[in-house]
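Recap quiz, item 2
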Amino acid sequence: MLKRLRSSTLSAAVAAALLLSLAGCGGQDTPPTSGEPVALRMTVWTGNENHLALFNSIADAYVAANGDQVSSITFETLPYDEYTQTLTTQIMGGNAPDLAWILEGSGPEFVDSGALVDLKPTLQAVEGYDLDDILGSALALWEKDGGVYAYPFSNSPFGILVNTTMLTAAGQPLPGELLASGQWTWDKLLEIATGAAQATGKAGFYVGGYESYLAWQYLAEAWDAWGAAPWSEDGSTCTFTDQAMVDFMTWYHDGVYEAGAITEAGVRADFYAGESALTTAQISKVAGLDGSFEWDMVPLPSGPAGLQPVIGQAGVGVLTQSDHSEVAADFLAFFTNPANSAKLAQYFPPPRQSVLTVEVLGAANPLLTTEQIEAVVIGQMSDAVTLPSHVKFAQVSDAAKIALDGLWTRGADVTQVMGNICTAIQPLLGS
Amino acid sequence: MVSAATPRTGRRAATRRPSGRPRSAIRRRDALVGYLFIAPQLLGAVALVIAPLIAVLYLSLHDWNPLASTFTFIGLDNYTKMFSDPSFLDSLEASGYFSLGLVVLNVTLALALAVLLNQKLPGTTAFRTFFFSPVVVSLVAWSIVWSFLLQYDGGINGFLSAIGVQGPNWLRSGPTAMASVIVVQVFKNVGLNMILFLAALQGVPMELREAARIDGAREWRVFRSVTLPMISPTVLLVSVITVIGSLEVFAQIAVLTGGGPGNSTTVLVYYLYQRAFKYHQFGFASAIGVVLFLIVLVLTLAQFQTRKRWVHDEV
């Protein structure tokens, strides 16, 4: 009897707990009845008080005008490094936000998987939204089958940050002068980085984002000037073995191990602490400079394939799992309309041509001169390409990284390593 | 409590007490009281351990991508795919290296330190504190500090170059990366095992060792034939918790190497994390979880099965 009682109690407890835990896997809050104001939530990766204050002021204006539909809008900050993982976990747990920022690398995966709502009907229906004002190059990543699945609210071009104090001390020419005289090339950058490293004993150059040799997609800031790409445009064929990529990787490898200009894997050199002469960066990074040395910001240099501006992008979309996707899409249309885009442009270089002006960007980036903003941001935006992305980006990126690690030793065979990368990622690309 | 107050009676009284209440009813009430006492712990274990364990088993039979909102029953496909995935076999190998290195180094060093501390020498308290303090330090903070020390131009290579030695790029070459992660983990937890061994050593009766010495045994012989067998239950305990802990390593890998260089330090749990939270293959990751559970179970059972051969109070 006792045994039966024990086993039945235990079984019931296990079954109840299992049901509870499984219910959490796919459960959704019950949608409110129509007409009842709803609370919206947007996940973001910024914790900057000024950014959040601006978002809240736009949200307050929307709630004031649409109190019958929306009761409140909250912005939830998730840590940048774990952003996509945390967002996915929320979706998995049945706690998906209504709107979310999406990183460009995982953009195609979100668009392709059906996780995002097509915003085009809503954006077209809103009077004065002017969808055509948004640069086609900025929108490309977020479009599929004629639909628009996110608004590319941030389009920040990469440029080169220069420690002019260090270069001057090392007796090297300044990139600003080289740019003016039409000699601003990647080879020249490597040359002055080598000179600076030898003269000062500090680092010469590192690709911002790839300093820890993990996120290789940031190398695209440089390799686009070689005409190199990791895979074909449709994402189905590995192109690491193409001559342009082999040439770039040879240049980079020589820059590390022959010239001693580029920081080696496992070495930390922080440009913002004055430990490196040059690095690639977006304009927002200028805020991290404390005035302990003189600096300049110039556009990316040109390479064997000419000049190729590169932007880092982020989108904001509405999740299909949201119970209030229609209201959320309407808020997104308000959040990104021409008037609010001009406000957002204070912090995030906008995709709207009408607000892509020196005045707007200059007000938000007082450390940059008008010339720097024109050269680094405005002059580059229309021709810019984004960093690599793919429907299976995380998987492909990890597989490529594992093989690419083989390149970071003295005397490594570039062609062989590029072949290894294609062997590793082609099955993923082709499937 | 009721049964403790009940006097022992003969067989007849066992079925019916003088008060007239059947003994089975008392037993049931005792059991109920007992269950109520353990209920908080049991509920926690069911909700947080047993139910997720069963759920993981269930999920491992599905293709679940929350991003695409797909949840399809696929039978044992995840297991078939896993065993044919070279990355899985690589991660098994990496876990094997890590566990072997960690268990051997940790248990040996912990025992050696405990034996040293068991001597009546000045400064043992400070020494004990020194080795135990990393146990209470945050694991992530510990790993971050070590990542600075182990970088190519970091503290350790700085020290080595001061004495004329060119240190390797510790975290960027396969063999040294794995060795570094193992050593960082050993220093983190050796203090705990050391304390467990120390407690066991202090429980070994002095007269047994003295008797052995009177019989002519030297110190090594005393240790091998008297002390070690006496502390063998603790050796079993330490081995089991260290093996289980070694298979659960994650934070150190994530902070120090990110599974690299290549995939040389991608252990099973890191592989599981990649599949679940980076690739959104939660069904596949659940299957890895099930396999990891079985590995831990088999290793633990194996250790318990073999205990009769070497744990003295099991003989």
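The first helix of chain A runs from residue 2 to 26.
Residues 139 and 152 of chain A are 6 Å apart (CA to CA).
End of item.
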